[in-house]
Amino acid sequence: MTANPDSAPCWLLLAESSAISPPSPHDWLTPSEQRRLQQLGAVRRQQSFLYGHYLLRLALSEYLGGTPLQWQVEQRDSGRLWLSNDGYQHIGVSLSHSGDWFACAIAVGPVGVDIEQIKPRAALADMVESYGSPALQQRWQVLPEVQRLREWYRWWCCYESGVKQQGRGIDLAEFGKMRLLLVATDGGEASAASRLEKAASFHHSGSICWSLRFDHLMLAVTTASACRLFAPRWLSGRQKLPDPEGTSADSERWLLILE
């Protein structure tokens, strides 16, 4: 069943590389994708590019119908993706990958997604001190040691998904000024959407960022729509999603403010 894009939420698809089999040859890529692929020198980077861009086409066929190879995905020099199919330029798409995991998001209007493997980082405290906003540094001081790594990744994923939604690159000075305001961690979709709408009205530059915590992954999506993680039929039995961290499988909703 495909979605009605005018009323559907943002769809988020999470998949392992083992569940994705891009067709060869790669003539299904658009000219702008072909150019981008050729710019990636390392074979592993080229492979990740192909897996992600084919995953996006699989997701589009689930979300909007048609076959995967009917969808024309273009990539600007900035890295931003867009659809060139007639009548679908208002649909926003975004891709991210980390290790063997890939994430894609589809929504009406601009959308950004980022996924990161949660793994130890050298001199993390120095990174927070050097690049973290005052709000992050204050949060950092009161967190137990075991939670600090995840908090860093949450802030980073929310930030990167936010700049992807806006179609621009990373600026560490901007990251050092950003704020995250928790809106909700539970509740029904309708009530959560209502709270988000009210929260977003507090600041004209605020965006809604949805974060999902897993045992070894952090994922964030910035979009104007409610966000829903979905598992299409072709993924059934081919992978097992990592267990969500904590007791709630629901996402957290944040007001992301970039100044």
**How far apart, in Å, are the first and last alpha carbons?**
40 Å
Q: Counting H and I runs of at least 4 residues, what is the number of helices?
A: 7
Q: Strand order within the widest sheet? A: 6-9-8-11-7
Strand content: 25-35%
- Work out the radius of gyration: 18 Å
Shape: globular
The H/E string reads EHHEEEEEHHHHEHEEEE
Structural class: alpha+beta
Oligomer: single chain
Low-confidence stretches: 186-205, 243-250
Helix content: 25-40%
**What number is the mean pLDDT?**
81
How many strands?
11
Task: Give a verbal description of the structure.
- With 259 residues, this protein is an alpha+beta fold.
- The chain is 33% helix and 25% strand.
- The protein contains seven helices and eleven strands.
- The protein has helices at residues 31-39, 43-64, 124-131, 134-142, 145-165, 172-175, 189-200, and strands at 10-16, 73-75, 81-83, 91-98, 101-108, 111-117, 179-184, 206-213, 217-223, 227-229, 252-257.
- The strands form three sheets. A five-stranded antiparallel beta sheet has the order 6-9-8-11-7, with helices on both faces. Strands 4-5-1-10 form a four-stranded mixed beta sheet, with helices on one face.
Keywords, separated by commas or semicolons:
259 residues; alpha+beta; globular
Give the gist of this structure.
The protein is α+β, with helices and mostly antiparallel strands and 259 residues long. Helix content is 33%, strand content 25%.
